[in-house]
Amino acid sequence: MTGNCFVRQEATLEIIKNVASFCAECYSEVQKNQIIFYDMENCCYLCEACQEVLAEKLDANCESLDSKNNSLF
Questions:
Q1: Model pLDDT for residues 26-46, shown as the tens digit of each residue
Q2: Domain presence at residue 1
Q3: Number of domains observed in the structure of the chain
Q4: What are phi and psi of 23, to 5 degrees?
Q5: Where are the alpha helices (DSSP H) in the chain?
């Protein structure tokens, strides 16, 4: 479910310099070549640990559909 919410990237010097040098959630410093995630809903970069926590929260809030009744009505 949360696969479409985040874009996985490697932190480049350009991203660090021009966009985000800190995680938007825990404010840890982003290091070059670190795996970071762009949160598509909140338009910010997150470290891997914060992305995992947020993804778990999003998954916990989702309701699964009954496979026999895949209709909205």
A1: 999 999 999 999 999 999 999
A2: no
A3: 1
A4: -65, 135
A5: 13-18, 48-61
